[in-house]
Write a structure and sequence with these properties.
Immunoglobulin-like; 3 domains; 4-stranded antiparallel sheet
Length: about 375
Amino acid sequence: MNSNLKRRFLQAVALSAVVGAGLAASVAAGSASTGSQRATTTTTTATTTTTATKPAPANTALPSISGTAKDGQVLTASNGSWTNSPDSFTYQWQRCASGGGGCGSITGANSQRYTVASADVGHTLRVEVTAHNSGGTGTASSNPTGVIQAAGSAPANSKAPVVSGTPEVGQKLTVDTGTWSGSTPITYDYTWQRCDHNGNGCVTFLAHSNATSYVLTSADVDHTIRVEVTAKNSNGSSYVYSGHTAVITVKTVQHATVIAVKDVSLPNRLVIDNVQFSPNPVLSRNTPIQARFHVSDSQGLSVQGALVFALGLPYGWSYNASEQATGADGWVTLTIRPTRNMPLRRGDLVMFVRARKPGDSLLAGVSTRRLVQEGIR
């Protein structure tokens, strides 16, 4: 076989192989679609890219407030400490009750700094801090401040009050305020105290009054007096004591001691301590009886101005005498007139005698009573 024929033969064999392969593939495909209904699954692999979300801020140390808790002062909020890297912070200031509760937001107070207003006086303040980042927000509140004080300063004493006057019963003592600094206006009140003769054991007898003066009474004898002066303003109050007076005594008049009845007060009492009758004994119904009574107090001072009344007993033996006041020596004279019913025989005319302080109840106060008698012959 020549070379041309050999080449053609090889080409024909190759072509037959190719055609045969294609025919076999076609038959297989047709068989799959129409024959056994065999399923063919194609698997596709997908790739997903996930972006992580940043957590919101979380507080680890509370915000705090610096500055002076007083009207007109500037307070500054610190942010506290936070996790997750906050990008920014916002603020809301709140006004609370004096105990730190019942807080409410202050309109417009949303800066890091806050100027204390007069409306805040007597309250406390706190700040609410909110931290922000791309993951969200977190909020934390500071502890409250102390109670907000008014602008200015509380009263402070630089010179003690002084009590002036004569330390004798019946004399008037006067106290001044002393010297004070602090925001005005300042008001004052006065507490009067009675102490022992050494200035100890002081007891209040006139508390927180407006009285800048006091008239000494028999209850003050052998005591000393001091005054507590309290100064107040919108920022607070303070008090200070005066020095003590000298020991209180009674005024001596011609070797006798006298006190006005208005200066006799409990526990001091009136006493009818001396009685004189003229004539004595009674010998006639026609002769008036001059009955003299002396009134003192329980400390032995003669009492001027005590009202004395006497009533003869049995009833009907004498006419009633009108009530009379004791004189400067403590004595009073009442005229008792016998009636015709008084027997002129050996016996006694009994008298009920009462001494009292004008204005006191007849059955109370410093009044006293006594039964005395005059002989009848």
